[in-house]
UniProtKB/TrEMBL annotation:
It comes from Thermosipho africanus (strain TCF52B). PROSITE patterns: GNAT (PS51186). Gene3D superfamilies: 3.40.630.30. The lineage of its organism: Bacteria, Thermotogati, Thermotogota, Thermotogae, Thermotogales. GO terms for molecular function: acyltransferase activity, transferring groups other than amino-acyl groups. InterPro entries: Acyl_CoA_acyltransferase (IPR016181), GNAT_dom (IPR000182). This is Acetyltransferase, gnat family. Keywords: Transferase. It comes from the Bacteria. Residues 7-163 form the N-acetyltransferase domain. The keyword Transferase applies.
Length: 163
């Protein structure tokens, strides 16, 4: 477990899956996560994803986000891809809508980035975010991400670089 001021990053547990699926299937949450048709995630899809988690795997790590105050599951974040040769990790995050605008996402991302730099010895963290997701962009900037490039009409690519 990795603690921030408001949240803790921990391994996913099977009992997180139903609430995670409800969060991700919320149309307002989904519009910020994936392009295209927001087809609902099925129970089987969530279970396949959970069963594929491997902490000894290829550099992909998923963390459940829980509030420190009560241990309540509020979302997830993780490392989606690692380029070990160039020392770059790509990350992502989502929170259930009831937990937006309370500092949880910023705290979780700060904990995740610290984990990547300090535990994995990675030099660059990047993420992609839709340009219309201004709330997330502000949060990422608080953590230290800078906009490095944009694909017109799709999303921004933001990166956090440590020298």
């Amino acid at each position: 477990m990795y603690n921030g001021k408001l949240v803790r990053l921990r391994a996913y547990e099977k009992n997180d899956l139903e609430i995670a699926r409800k969060f991700v299937n919320d149309p307002e949450v989904k519009k910020y996560l994936i392009p295209g048709i927001p087809f609902p995630l099925r129970v089987d899809d969530e279970e396949k994803w959970y069963n594929s988690l491997n902490p000894f795997g290829r550099g992909e790590y998923s963390f459940a986000i829980e509030r420190i105050e009560d241990g309540k599951y509020i979302g997830g974040c993780g490392i989606n891809k690692v380029d070990w040769k160039n020392s770059v990790a790509e990350v992502g995050i989502f929170l259930g809508k009831p937990y937006w605008n309370k500092g949880y996402g910023t705290d979780a991302m700060r904990v995740l980035v610290n984990f990547i730099f300090n535990e994995m010895n990675i030099n660059k963290v990047k993420l992609e975010v839709f340009s219309f997701n201004e709330r997330a962009i502000r949060s990422y900037e608080k953590v230290g991400f800078k906009i490095e490039g944009a694909l017109r009409g799709r999303y921004l690519e933001m990166v956090n670089i440590i020298m």
